[in-house]
Amino acid sequence: MATESTLRFGAQTDEVTSLLRIVNMVRTGGATTRPEIGRITGLGRGVVTQRVDQAYEMGYLADGDYGPSSGGRAPRHVRFRSERGRLIVCALGALHIRVGIADLEGEVVDQTHTPWEISRGPEETLEMAMKLIDELITRTPGAPIWAVTVGAPGPVDFETGRPVAPPIMPGWNGYDIRSAFEQRYDAPTWVDNDVNLLAFGELVRRAGEDANLIYVKIGSGIGAGLLSQGHVHRGANGAAGDIGHVRVRESDALCRCGKTGCLEAVASGWALVKQAEAAIAEGVGGQLAAQHAAGETISPEDITRAADSGDALSTTLLQQSARVVGESIAALVNMFNPSVIVIGGVVAGTGELYLAEVRQRVYELSLPLATRDLTIVNSVNDEGEPLRGGAALAREQLFEVTFPRWFAEGKPTLSRFH
């Protein structure tokens, strides 16, 4: 048997490798009894017993229920101890903060949120986020925090956990979000673009289905999360999927990033608000005009609600947005060849009105082979989706990417990540 010190210093012996494999096999449900573990790994009964007993001692596995008998003694299931640790997820949006706590299986056990403007800057925003998290920890006491994931509404360098010139996050460029959470919760932290968390959420919701997927979020900004074989494609610097700043033909609209003609400056929520206000100033009537005349500000949510009520201006604006978004998605389809495209975000909240225009442009402009098996659907618009996605991201990083690094410690520690 490998000694504790051998495991602690990370010697990747055959024993350590097989022990890691068995723990992950039980965790993912690949095998849940000792006979199943033996059949899949090819290890003898005595070796399987030794490895499983060691995993019990280390606190990763425990006895589960008894399985059905095939004539002899019923086999005892082995289970992963998902209650040993908890995961924190913090989803920062342009106009809200949403936080949750999940177990190691990714099940969100509690959550809360508050309206908040990300433009208030990193110090105030993270202070509020941590206040919400601390409240959750207080009302759901239990196992220690094993990991934190943070979603931010802008480009993020995944390796450093720092936003990179995020257009809708003034004051956040290069801010060390990861260290702020690691110092507060003494747990490894991963920071990613918020739409990648949504893509992970779809992966969880579609368990067992084809995981070549694009999640496109059309909200205050526009972005896409790219899933290839179940893993997020971030690119060399975390900029993959940032379609909000591709150029729209024949547009000279000024974008918040400082360039002109960006998709976000034409089709995002804030762009539609500007277009609605300009149309009203020119004398266009209707529901939005009445709201404006009453002294009320117009939001992207107001535009989608007005379109649902048949407002002509809102309907026209959303259809125009969907057409140019569809053109950009078509380019992604030709390059990435997904099996599923999920459309989410407040601007797409009118359902089929928006989706029909997107579908039409994608199928018009994409290669026949790329669209042969393509499905384009609306997001379920579940507010818990980024929290489930953030928990899935944490589990991927803990158990698929870094597990051998901290396995012998029995829990992830910051010393093993820096």
The whole-number mean of residue pLDDT values reads 90
| The CATH H-level homologous superfamily of the largest domain | ATPase, nucleotide binding domain
Shape: elongated
Secondary-structure element order, N to C: HHHHEEEEEHEEEHEHEEEHHHHHEHHEHH
- Biggest beta-sheet profile: 5 strands, mixed
Which CATH top level class of the largest domain fits?
Alpha Beta
Unreliable stretches, pLDDT < 50, 5 or more residues?
A: 1-11
Q: Could you give the distance between the termini?
A: 29 Å
- CATH topology annotation of the largest domain: Nucleotidyltransferase, domain 5
β-strand amount? 15-25%
**Known CATH architecture of the largest domain:** 2-Layer Sandwich
What's the structural domain tally? Answer: 3
- The beta-strand count equals 14
Spatial sequence of strands, sheet with the most strands = 5-4-3-6-9
Radius of gyration from the alpha-carbon trace, in angstroms: 24 Å
Structural class: alpha/beta
Number of helices: 16
Helix content: 40-55%
